[in-house]
From TrEMBL:
<keyword id="KW-0256">Endoplasmic reticulum</keyword>
<comment type="similarity">
    <text>Belongs to the ERF4 family.</text>
</comment>
<dbReference type="Pfam" id="PF10256">
    <property type="entry name" value="Erf4"/>
</dbReference>
<dbReference type="GO" id="GO:0031211">
    <property type="term" value="C:endoplasmic reticulum palmitoyltransferase complex"/>
</dbReference>
<dbReference type="GO" id="GO:0005789">
    <property type="term" value="C:endoplasmic reticulum membrane"/>
</dbReference>
<protein>
    <recommendedName>
        <fullName>Ras modification protein ERF4</fullName>
    </recommendedName>
</protein>
<dbReference type="GO" id="GO:0006612">
    <property type="term" value="P:protein targeting to membrane"/>
</dbReference>
<feature type="domain" description="Golgin subfamily A member 7/ERF4">
    <location>
        <begin position="102"/>
        <end position="214"/>
    </location>
</feature>
<dbReference type="InterPro" id="IPR051371">
    <property type="entry name" value="Ras_palmitoyltransferase"/>
</dbReference>
<feature type="compositionally biased region" description="Basic and acidic residues">
    <location>
        <begin position="8"/>
        <end position="22"/>
    </location>
</feature>
<comment type="subunit">
    <text>Interacts with ERF2.</text>
</comment>
<feature type="compositionally biased region" description="Basic and acidic residues">
    <location>
        <begin position="42"/>
        <end position="62"/>
    </location>
</feature>
<dbReference type="InterPro" id="IPR019383">
    <property type="entry name" value="Golgin_A_7/ERF4"/>
</dbReference>
<keyword id="KW-0472">Membrane</keyword>
<feature type="region of interest" description="Disordered">
    <location>
        <begin position="1"/>
        <end position="92"/>
    </location>
</feature>
Length: 218
């Protein structure tokens, strides 16, 4: 709004200074929709709109069946459910079908930071392999893990690498890498001789950073 200013006896009209960021919004405001008022048919479609329960149900029935998802292992929290696959005959082909269950063998932290797996026999394996076979398999795996984390071998490998400006890595394999190759060969051997013929399959534990050992149950 303009205001009159008296300057040297003369009245001058001063215009108000507008803020440079000021802007005016024009248009009509849509009144809010009353509660519990259904949307018009034209507003049911589009982003941000949710269908009614009946429409969602119809769409769900029209969609094709989703692809089966592979099971996942979990921490032990109690006996398996009655509808689980444990205690049944093997089904499916290893490497072709998804396993019906996955058993998790936990890490044994009683030995400190050294990577070792628990030798306690999982009850889910009853009827497939004996406790003795399971114990021998886990002990063989733990043995190689002890060799892989040898302090003396790691010291020798690092010293040789530093003295040769890491050129030795081109033709020298570390103790850890050699142990990992042995472990991979051992797991393949255990699967071929003991686990696969009975509908079980040991997964490569390095893929989960040796946090646990998984056994597929077919």
């Amino acid at each position: 709004m303009d205001t009159d200013v008296d300057v040297d006896g003369m009245k001058m009209r001063e215009r108000p200074v507008e803020h440079p960021l000021k802007f005016e919004v024009t248009g009509t405001r849509t009144p809010p929709r009353p509660i519990n008022t259904p949307l018009p048919a034209s507003e049911h479609e589009g982003p941000g709109r949710t269908d009614s329960f009946d429409q969602r149900k119809d769409k769900k029935e029209a969609l094709p069946m989703s692809q089966p998802q592979p099971p996942r292992s979990s921490y032990y929290y109690g006996p398996p459910a009655d509808d689980s696959a444990f205690g049944t005959e093997p089904m499916g082909t290893i490497g072709t079908h998804y396993p019906r269950e996955i058993i998790r063998v936990e890490r044994d932290y009683e030995s400190g930071e050294l990577c070792q797996f628990a030798t306690a026999y999982p009850l889910e394996l009853e009827g497939r392999i004996t406790p003795t076979e399971f114990l021998e398999s886990i002990n063989a795996i733990n043995e190689i893990l002890i060799s892989a984390h040898s302090t003396l071998a790691a010291f020798v490998d690092n010293t040789v690498a530093v003295l040769t400006l890491y050129i030795s890595n081109l033709f020298w394999t570390t103790q850890y890498d050699r142990s990992m190759k042995r472990l991979a060969g051992l797991i393949d051997e255990l699967n071929a001789q003991t686990f696969n013929p009975r509908g079980l399959n040991i997964l490569w534990p390095r893929r989960v950073a040796f946090l646990f050992l998984e056994i597929e149950y077919y």
